[in-house]
Amino acid sequence: MADKQRATTLVDIAKEAGVSIATVSKALNGRPDVRAETRERVLDIARKRGFTPNAAARTLLGGRSGTVGLITSDLEGRFGIPVMMGAEDAFGAGEMSVFLCDARGDSIREQHHIDALLSRRVEGIIVVGANTNPRPPLARRPPVPVVYAYAPSEDPEDQSIIGDNVEAGRMGVRHLLDVGRARVAHISGDREYAAAADRAKGVQEELHAHGLELAGSEPLFGAWNEGWGRRAVRVLLDREPTIDGIVCGSDQIARGVIEGLTELGKRVPEDISVIGFDNWRVIAENTRPPLTSIDFRLQDLGRLAAEKLFSAMDGNPGKGTIAVAPRLVLRNTTVP
User: Fold this and answer.
1) Strand 245-248 relative to strand 184-188: parallel, antiparallel, unpaired?
2) What are the domain boundaries of the chain?
3) Intrachain domains 2-62 and 165-296 with the same fold
4) Which of the 8 DSSP states describes residue 151?
5) In contact, 222 and 193? CB cutoff 8 Å
6) Which residues contact 157 (CB under 8 A, 6 or more apart)?
7) How many CB atoms neighbour CB 62 within 10 A?
8) 165-296, CATH topology level
9) pTM value?
10) How many CB atoms lie within 10 A of CB 207?
């Protein structure tokens, strides 16, 4: 009776399948160096016996730790957290444990975390940036795969996953043109940020593709906040009173722009349509009227970074930068 209640082990499956314990482990872990018919026989026996592999045993037999590292400099920030959530979702689906480390933008602290992660035998590392500006690669290259997320590595040989800010700028203009706007301006944040420069580039490229010029001659760069949006829209309308559409560099700027337009007696979207970036729901949904915005799909970005890390861990490393396409979230600042 006791023998019937005993949990099935790798030894039991190996005996029934007529193979070694190592072969059973390889088959259960999806290793390619097992014949297809042998793998199917092992898996069939495991299913019939209701076998659940012990994590520690799987680690020892497979030579893998089942852990990865996630390093961020934006643990409390608006953008890094969704990226990390997406990566953790993918790691959970792959039955990987995650060690989360906060480097706080300090390269020395970052290297300390790398050393600690390697001492725990992590199989790979994702580095999540605090902003979209390219960053130097890790100072000492670890002996495990590394994928950079949100902020790309400066080294083109590294694998980086980012949001497509140029396409986001184009998308914003396309939408405003689709709703009948023709005099489109652009108000954005700090020009030293790659996101601001890339979004402005996309805005101007899309206008030029339609034979149009940017209203106001050039983008207005400033701060990433509502106060700047309120001030900037007054400057803009003094310069170009015929403007009928504004692409804003962030949702916070857009909210300030809408407040400024209301103070000037302009109706949104009837007189001027406004679109933001980031789809920060606490801002976009509570703006009056609710704000149309470009969503950078940060959780999808994190999931893709994890998938690329899995691929590298399986011996298929990638290189270069992959840009995740954004999506348009329609609300009432561009259409009534």
Assistant:
1) parallel
2) 2-62, 67-163+298-320, 165-296
3) no
4) S
5) no
6) 319
7) 17
8) Rossmann fold (3.40.50)
9) 0.79
10) 23
Say which residue the tokens 């495990």 belong to: 144
| Three-state SS at 193 | coil
Of the candidates 280, 278, 256, 283, which has an alpha carbon nearest to the alpha carbon of residue 268? 256
Q: What is the pLDDT along the chain (336 residues), one digit of tens a residue?
A: 344 455 677 778 888 999 887 787 777 766 667 888 888 898 888 888 877 655 444 444 455 678 899 999 877 667 888 998 899 888 877 678 889 999 988 889 999 999 999 988 899 999 999 899 999 999 888 899 999 999 999 999 999 999 999 999 999 999 999 999 999 999 999 999 999 999 999 999 999 999 999 998 899 999 999 999 999 999 999 999 999 999 999 999 999 999 999 999 999 999 999 999 999 999 999 999 999 999 999 999 999 999 999 999 888 999 999 999 999 999 999 987
Give the model's pLDDT for residue 63: 53
Kindly state the tokens that stand for 120: 């725990």
Find where tokens 């909210």 sit.
255
What span, in angstroms and rounded, lies between the C-alpha atoms of 272 and 261? 8
Can you tell me the distance from the alpha carbon of 64 to that of 44, in angstroms, rounded to the nearest whole number?
Answer: 24
Give CA separation, 182 vs 106, 199, 251, in Å: 46, 19, 22
User: What single-letter DSSP state applies at residue 36?
Assistant: H
Question: Torsions phi, psi of 91, nearest 5?
Answer: -65, -40
Q: Can you tell me the distance from the alpha carbon of 33 to that of 19, in angstroms, rounded to the nearest whole number? A: 14
Q: Answer for the pair 213, 238: CB distance below 8 angstroms, yes or no.
A: no
Helix H or strand E encompassing 18: none
Q: In angstroms, rounded to a whole number, what is the distance separating the alpha carbons of residues 287 and 52?
A: 51
Q: Quick one: CA torsion of 233, 239, 240, 241, rounded to 10 degrees?
A: 80
DSSP state, 274?
A: E
The yes or no reply on domain 67-163+298-320 and CATH 3.40.50.170 is no
* CATH numeric code, 2-62: 1.10.260.40
Closest-CA residue to 188 (of 177, 179, 173, 198): 198
Encoded amino acid at 194, one letter: A
Distance from C-alpha of 107 to C-alpha of 248, rounded to nearest angstrom: 33
